[in-house]
Design goal:
Oligomer: heterodimer
Structural class of chain B: mainly beta
Number of helices of chain A: 8
Distance between the termini of chain B: 40 Å
Structural class of chain A: mainly beta
Order of helices and strands of chain B: EEEEEEEH
Largest sheet of chain B: 7 strands, antiparallel
Radius of gyration of chain A: 26 Å
Strand content of chain B: over 45%
Distance between the termini of chain A: 43 Å
Chain lengths: 696, 102
């Protein structure tokens, strides 16, 4: 298309998106709706979503350059359909680079809703004329996309762990009652990222004792991008994701949920900085990605001490590594009392591995090979249990896999085959497709043998880990006309061997349907029904042998969003569930929450009042809560009581921003909250949080 | 008793959903998609929640003949294969209409 014609069309299109500058105004994103759609109501929620949340914010601070991106990067946002991605690349191939974000309206299949969802994370860069030619250190020192974040939070009530008379000396928390957190980061898209994190949980001691650097957890990273043939150079703490994630994947798992299509496929995105505070599931060492023609070669090494419950062999009055063993690894990252400190950083984990990826010239075919070798200095020997007898035991493990991704018209076929040293295997094969601009389809078949050992894998599945599972998933999303979206999935799975609380091979299925109606720019409503059936041991069983029976949980959800004016927003949410084993007693739970958000200039206030009533822990209700920047709150409400929180945010100057948050649970069905050292001897729990962000 | 809906956004694609209820059994939710990857070949997938069945199939249609194959996997039972063969009877008039259309 001639440049002149392009400009004429752009002028006509300017009316579509409202803004004043060259590109539409980067509005402050409200990630919540977007995130809610992606996250299912988790049953076992030990996963730290703050990593993904932060990655999204990374894209907000370092937007993806639409003129310089690839399919993997775009699909890692989970916003665009296969057809939309295809159309974008086709449009750029036919018409040259995008001149501005307004031009997105001209790309077939890009409706206003999709564009608005995409805007916070993308941009269009004018490379060449304005390219920064100064030396690297100068670019780093003058980079304005940086921040220093300081956060402190504590629980107002005193937990038992802090009270001498209620704890034994080895369980008494040694630190103070607040959790402190400092993070610094400076980064520039496709150039560099440098940062460090210091974090200290409630009860942990600050200082430099025991090889600690000021805080209990410290982390740093330096990553450089696109330096000649080196696509990435990563030093410090990092994560990566290759293929479908069976061998190496980002620990954040996207399971099944209201987003039925885009969460199926993992993205091949190479090395990324690790900045979360999960204290586990990351690599510490060096990794590089080197470009050689159509190949990208990514070797890495990691050397790190992890927490483990080590049984020391002291027959020779010595720490005899060869005869000691560790029965399990701790992943919570708590080092608050002598008991927890005795397991801190007791096992050395050395990892070496890599990936080679090939991309065909027309970018339609991608093939890859990944391999990882792990060695511990102490053997892992679990306490022998029937259900875990096929799990990994030993000092080392090697896992390797090959993956593919192939585009044909509006279909993307993908898969990965992997095998571990003990001949355990795992594979996934799937497809994602835009059957028409209004209908998207996704299918995936997976099979993980009961002895498939992958430490860093996180492929799609019903379980949180890829082992002992076979299943098939079909998902669909239909947008019959503007304003309506219908999403549904059906998943069927079997577990060839026993699981915890399930003393026989079992099976189950799950299905979901969500209907969303965007009535206008101001009003949107959606309803969702979900049902999951799984085999589980019969509770309160009185016979000598456990029996596995079919257990069903149904989830109901209704959500209403109303934004009458720019400065005020309401959200009402009702969610409920019921749980039943075979023809046993049916238990239920419900939570009702009313949120309000007020925004005026530099000041923003969010608040919620909620009521919950659940018969048992099985019916706990997970509700997303607004929190300070970069923190993520997705707590479970259970028992009978109320919850409220108030969050205030104020932009003092362009460089300085502050937050304060108060949250409170009040229970009517109990006199204490929590248990053990975390117990609070009152029927309520109050959390206070404050945060400062400074931009240099 | 059955109640259902069929959605056909354009000629190549059809999405169907229905609920079937028998007095003695729980309701069965069924859904299916048919997509013509090329004009003569429709491909289908479907789901039944009551029997936990997943089905997949394809067909080949010419002017006079049609052949269809389907595979169903019912949980707990072994899989079933179905095949059907059909011949299209058309009156002379209908044939002429078809020829005009082409």
């Amino acid at each position: 298309m001639k440049l002149r014609n392009k400009i004429l069309i752009l002028i006509f299109l300017l009316s579509g998106i409202s803004a004043t500058a060259q590109n539409p105004q980067r509005k402050e994103i409200d990630l919540d709706e977007y995130v809610l759609e992606l996250f299912s109501q988790q049953d076992d929620s030990d996963i730290d979503y703050s990593d993904f949340y932060e990655r999204l914010f990374q894209y907000y601070g370092n937007p993806i350059d639409l003129n310089n991106t690839d399919r993997e990067e775009l699909s890692s946002l989970f916003i665009l359909s296969e057809q939309q991605i295809n159309n974008l690349f086709l449009y750029i191939a036919e018409n040259g680079n995008l001149l501005s974000l307004y031009e997105l309206q001209a790309v077939p299949g890009f409706d206003i809703q999709t564009i608005n969802k995409l805007l916070p994370f993308v941009d269009v860069f004018d490379s060449g004329i304005n390219a920064d030619n100064r030396p690297l250190y100068k670019r780093i020192l003058t980079e304005r996309n940086n921040y220093l974040l300081i956060r402190y939070n504590m629980v107002a009530e005193k937990k038992n762990g802090f009270i001498d008379s209620l704890t034994k000396p080895e369980t008494r928390y040694l630190g103070n009652r607040g959790q402190s957190f400092i993070r610094f980061r400076t980064s520039h898209t496709k150039d560099f990222s440098i940062g460090f994190t210091l974090e200290n949980d409630q009860g942990e001691r600050l200082g430099f004792q025991n090889n600690q650097f000021l805080s209990d957890f410290s982390s740093f990273h330096i990553q450089l991008y696109n330096k000649k043939r080196f696509k990435t150079i990563a030093i410090g703490d990092f994560n990566m994701s290759f293929g479908q994630g069976l061998v190496i994947a980002n620990p954040l798992a996207f399971g099944k949920g209201g987003e039925t299509i885009n969460t199926l496929r993992r993205s091949n995105i190479g090395f990324k900085p690790y900045t979360s505070v999960m204290e586990t599931n990351f690599f510490r060492g060096v990794g590089i990605t080197y470009k050689l023609g159509k190949f990208e070669i990514s070797p890495f090494v990691s050397y790190k001490y992890i927490d483990g419950n080590v049984n020391v062999d002291t027959t020779n009055n010595d720490f005899d590594v060869d005869n000691s063993s560790v029965s399990y690894f701790m992943t919570m990252g708590f080092h608050r009392n002598l008991n927890e400190l005795s397991s801190k950083k007791t096992v050395l984990q050395q990892v070496a591995g890599g990936n080679i990826t090939y991309n065909s010239t027309n970018k339609n075919l991608q093939l890859g090979i990944s391999a990882v070798y792990t060695q511990f200095n102490v053997a892992l020997i679990r306490n022998p249990k029937e259900y875990s007898k096929f799990e990994f035991n030993g000092k080392s493990n090697f896992t390797m896999g090959t993956n593919y991704s192939y585009n044909w018209r509006n279909f993307n076929f993908f898969g990965e085959y992997a095998m571990s040293e003990n001949k355990g295997y795992g594979y996934v094969n799937g497809l994602v497709s835009s059957l028409s601009p209004k209908v998207e389809l996704a299918m995936l078949n997976r099979n993980f043998s009961k002895d498939f050992h992958t430490f860093y894998g996180n492929g799609f599945g019903e379980n949180t880990r890829n082992i002992n599972e076979k299943g098939t998933y079909i998902g669909i999303k239909i947008k019959p006309n503007r304003g309506w979206t219908i999403a549904a999935f059906y998943d069927r799975f079997t577990f060839p061997w026993m699981r915890s609380f399930t003393d026989a091979p079992s099976s189950g299925d799950e299905y979901l349907i969500r209907v969303t109606r965007n009535i206008s720019k101001q009003i949107s409503i959606y309803g969702q029904f979900r049902s999951k059936t799984r085999g589980k041991n019969l509770s309160n069983n009185i016979t000598t042998m456990d029996q596995v029976v079919s257990s069903t949980k149904n989830y109901y959800l209704l959500n209403f969003d109303y934004r009458p004016k720019e400065l005020i927003q309401f959200k009402t949410r009702v969610q409920a569930s019921n749980y039943q084993q075979m023809l046993g007693k049916k238990t239920a739970g419900i939570a009702i929450a009313q949120d309000i958000t007020l925004e005026k200039g530099k000041f923003k206030l969010s608040a919620r009042y909620a009521l919950f009533d659940t018969d048992d822990y099985d019916n706990r209700q997970y509700l997303f809560e607004k929190d300070v920047l970069y923190a993520f709150a997705f707590p479970a409400y259970f028992g009978k009581g109320t919850r409220y929180y108030v969050l205030i945010n104020y932009n003092i100057t362009r460089n300085l921003e502050i937050w304060a948050r108060l949250g409170r649970y009040d229970y009517i069905d109990r006199t204490v909250v929590g248990s053990g050292t975390e117990q609070i001897n009152a029927p309520h729990k109050t959390e206070l949080k404050a945060q400062i962000k400074y931009v240099f | 008793m059955k109640a259902g809906i069929s959605y056909r956004p354009y000629s190549k694609l059809m999405v169907n959903a229905e609920v079937v209820k028998d007095i003695y059994t729980k309701p069965d939710f069924r859904a299916g998609i048919e997509y013509k990857i090329i004009d003569k070949v429709p491909v289908r997938i479907g789901v039944n929640t009551l029997t936990k069945t997943m089905t997949a199939g394809a067909g080949f249609y010419t002017k006079d003949f049609r052949i269809d194959y389907a595979y169903s996997g019912i949980q707990y039972l072994s899989s079933a294969h179905s095949i059907s063969l059909g011949y299209v009877f058309k009156s002379k008039k209908a044939q002429q209409v078809d020829e005009v259309k082409e």
